[in-house]
């Protein structure tokens, strides 16, 4: 696993560039030139676009409030150090944010900047990518590190792309809402230890999201 510490320690030196990138990522939905899944009808397209716009607007307003409270220093914290991405997990109203969490993150990043120009995305930003190759690798590692039991409850993984460079790892488990919290935490800690900052070449994984077998969120953990 590659450690992500050097990447994040270098953040302060590239803050200006990343802030500019967040502002410029409007034409492709913040997805590095790759469109998200396209709706199959005009009705669904209208619904998707409305949801993305509402999520972006909510993120923009949140970013402006953060900037008003924290000044320029908040821009580095929210853009470079993943503050907007982490906030998106608990941002309100949930129904709006979950329509397109990536659009909320983009709005937050642009809103926390010093400018007033709005650059909403043209398409849905959030993109979900199954990652079945992670499961055998994780279980193999766990088996040799005394963590076979918690790893056995991991079912499947999905990468939740929230833009060109930010993503979360979503881990569906065999747990239910009745599973004791220490068990859930042990699996989250085990996965995070194995992951150990295994980001892409030009991207960063910020959060681990554990779901129960019905798809409900059990817990989140920093990566």
What does this structure look like?
By secondary structure, the chain is of the alpha+beta class. The protein contains ten helices and five strands; from the N terminus they run αααααααβααββαββ. The chain has helices spanning 5-9, 15-24, 42-70, 72-80, 83-87, 94-97, 101-111, 134-143, 148-151, 181-195; strands at 127-130, 154-161, 166-173, 204-211, 217-222. The chain has a five-stranded mixed β-sheet, covered by helices on one side. β3 (166-173), α10 (181-195) and β4 form a beta-alpha-beta unit. It is elongated and about 50 Å long. It starts with a helix and ends with a strand. Mean pLDDT is 83; it is low at 1-40.
What's the N-to-C terminus distance?
Answer: 13 Å
Q: Give the topology string: H per helix, E per strand.
A: HHHHHHHEHHEEHEE
Strand content: 15-25%
Strand order of the largest sheet: 1-2-3-4-5
| Helical stretch tally | 10
Number of strands: 5
Q: What general form does the structure show?
A: elongated
Estimated structural class: alpha+beta
Helix content: 40-55%
Secondary structure elements and pairings:
Elements: H1 5-9, H2 15-24, H3 42-70, H4 72-80, H5 83-87, H6 94-97, H7 101-111, E1 127-130, H8 134-143, H9 148-151, E2 154-161, E3 166-173, H10 181-195, E4 204-211, E5 217-222
In short:
The protein has helices spanning 5-9, 15-24, 42-70, 72-80, 83-87, 94-97, 101-111, 134-143, 148-151, 181-195, and strands spanning 127-130, 154-161, 166-173, 204-211, 217-222. The chain is an alpha+beta fold and 223 residues long. β3, α10 (181-195) and β4 (204-211) form a beta-alpha-beta unit.
């Amino acid at each position: 696993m590659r450690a992500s510490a050097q990447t994040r320690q270098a953040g302060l030196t590239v803050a200006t560039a990343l802030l500019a990138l967040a502002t410029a990522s409007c034409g492709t939905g913040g997805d590095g030139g790759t469109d998200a899944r396209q709706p199959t009808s005009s009705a669904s397209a209208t619904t998707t676009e409305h949801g993305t716009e509402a999520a972006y607007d909510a993120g923009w307003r949140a970013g402006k409030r953060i900037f008003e409270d924290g000044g320029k220093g908040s821009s580095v914290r929210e853009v470079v150090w993943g503050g907007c991405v982490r906030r998106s997990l608990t941002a309100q109203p949930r129904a709006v944010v979950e329509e397109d969490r990536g659009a909320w993150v983009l709005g937050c990043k642009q809103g926390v900047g010093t400018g007033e120009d709005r650059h909403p995305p043209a398409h849905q930003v959030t993109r979900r990518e199954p990652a079945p190759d992670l499961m055998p690798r994780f279980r193999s590692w766990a088996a040799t590190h005394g963590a076979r039991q918690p790893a056995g409850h991991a079912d499947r993984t999905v990468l939740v792309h929230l833009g060109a460079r930010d993503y979360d790892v979503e881990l569906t488990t065999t747990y239910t809402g009745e599973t004791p919290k220490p068990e859930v935490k042990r699996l989250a800690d085990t996965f995070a230890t194995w992951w150990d900052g295994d980001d892409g070449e030009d991207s960063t994984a910020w959060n681990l999201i554990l779901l129960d077998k019905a798809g409900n969120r059990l817990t989140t953990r920093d990566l």
